[in-house]
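Illustration 12: MaoC family dehydratase.
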Amino acid sequence: MTIKTGWQGRYYEDFEIGDVYLHPLGRTLTQADNIWFTLLTQNTAPLHFDQHYAAQTEFGRPLVNSCLTLALVTGQSVADVSQNVFANLGWDEVRLPHPVFEGDTVYSRSEVLEKRDARSRPEVGIVTVRTEGRNQHGRPVIGFRRTLMVYRRGSKPLTGDPAAMED
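Figure caption equivalent — predicted structure in token form:
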């Protein structure tokens, strides 16, 4: 039997300014997702969980909590952008040009905007990406800049089962 490791994510050295990563997994947001996330975050806006209230708005139905949209699209980018993250430094310029509704499917992509050495930590570098989420109709539903510290190759703490790595 041959043991092969799965995708380990990008290290600082792997990022090139201008590269675009099409994140492979879309996600359909359900009513349960929206209600649970809204309750977990103690968001009391009835637009997210009260069908009767939402029906009276210009949208006519509940909107997906925008923080859920941000969390989902960030999560979709992890395998390509931050699998080897040391720390997130910030989300900037978050824009929500179109609403997300229960039943919408969101897909995302990221473009590398900047990279530089970290002055205080030689084991990491700083990367900035622009990430955009689109719904199943191709309409942009969120966009943001994200800056993070990413480990350099050979500096990341070990993960996985050490016993499985033995010969």
